[in-house]
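User: My instructor asked us to take a sequence, write out its structure as tokens, and then describe one feature of it. I'm not sure where to start. Here is the sequence I was given:
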Amino acid sequence: MSDTVVNAPYSQQAAHLVAKVDQDRWGSVRPSLYETARVISAAPWLPGEPGRIAYLLNEQSSDGSWGEGPERYRLLPTLSAVEAALAVLLRGTTATPAETTRRLATAVDRGLAALRALPPAGPWPDTAAAEILVPSLVARINEQLPLIADNASSVDNRTPVPDSWRPGPQLALPHGYDRALPEYAAKRYASAGGLPVKLHHTFEGIAAYIPQTLVPDRPDLLGSSPAATAARAATAPTSPSAGTVAALESVARRYAGSFPEAAPILVFERLWVAAALARAGLPAVSLPTVRRWAAEIYDPRGVRGAPGLMTDADDTAMAVLVSSLVGLPHGPEPLDRFHNGSHYDCYIGEDTGSVTANAHALQALGAHQRRHPGAERTYGPRTDKLRDWLVGQQRPEGTWPDKWHASPYYATARCVSTLKQYGGQYGADHAATAVETAVAWTVDTQRDDGSWGVWGGTAEETAYAAQILLSAAEHRPQHARALHRAETYLNGVPNTGHHPALWHDKTLYAPGAMIEAEVLAVRELLRTRPRPSGRETTTPTDAER
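Assistant: Let's start with the prediction itself. The structure tokens for your sequence are:
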């Protein structure tokens, strides 16, 4: 958000954010070190490689690792960066300046040291296809190190090969991963005669093992992933198609030569922004835009978060919910295909469930039944089962975990808000108890500066925690004190537009506009909340906001 609106009333800031999202055809996420390194490795023919190599070198941390978040989250991006640097050195192109070659060699040496210093065992983050991507990259690194050591000309004799690269102990695969899994998965799908769509987004993990006949031939990004697309091109027997080059170049232009893990993220971004802002009230000027989004996104066959991905229950539920919020006659029927009897699979063939996808589904079903009371006969029993499933996923301390986000505050806020709205309408006391337990945990985990956060206080997580407390059935004095401290923190946080990466894809990422919407809406809800004295602030009109 620009400086011209950061101190403006809520409705003006919200309208500005909606307009900004509407004008961006890619989505507000930062480049991914992991993804950019995969393109460096697989697509040396793509214009702009010197800039990508500079980005890779500049992103290395002082400890030799790459990536965001705690050290366990740095495993995959560091593997990706080391392998990409080795690939550039192994190509030995004279177009790479000698100084860059020396820096790459040093970066590899420091990266290998960082990898060997990682904890030998998990638990490792539950990021997308890590069980395939990690062993695949370890295998590639172990193939390349002896090749470079045995062929000094691969670095043009300009850089001495460190002893740590020479034949000897290989880079160990961290405990918890299976080195045979990438090849096993590829052979499994080869024998089945097809590659499922769910593997398109992480195709680079099995590209070396999959028969060429099974590689999807598309002119756009494979699985909305630049890394998967570059890997597909690298497996082709001929030069990459004009469509593949154009697709990658188009993304590179948006991200200054680098690449995000998914592009574009318009569906995902627009639905989450709209739902977040709706909690505090969508500005009247933005309603036509959001209605257009909902009309364009809703699909009776199910909604996908980005082109090339599978349809999924999470985006489908949010499309149903946002449609209901803006008065469009879109029913929850598309969700039916994901229902498994007790709850919703996020997508067909899912291995682990998502509580936030199911919280969004319960919100969508509840909102639909409120608008159409007769629908209770059809969806009431399903709503009961879904409520009970969500309550059953709560951990003893009061939190809910989720595979799409590193922080428990995100999933807990979604579940609390949903159960508060729709969990008790059929007399479910256990839903109310679950909410109270989550509220107590939230109060207990506030930081001294008024923030909340799993690794450190953040505006995003503070917004989620404030949502939990605002959903409490009873506003006790400790709730009021916690909310006052949260409001003070959020009002004092500079709006730099750069948020810590907490969301899970292949690595951590931060969907900027979605986070801005969450924080903006909660700040407005805090400003207009009932005060301890029992007096409420006057809700401003649109003209006053």
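For the description part of your assignment, you could build on this observation: The beta strands are 303-304, 311-312, 503-504, 508-509. Try explaining in your own words what that tells you about the chain.
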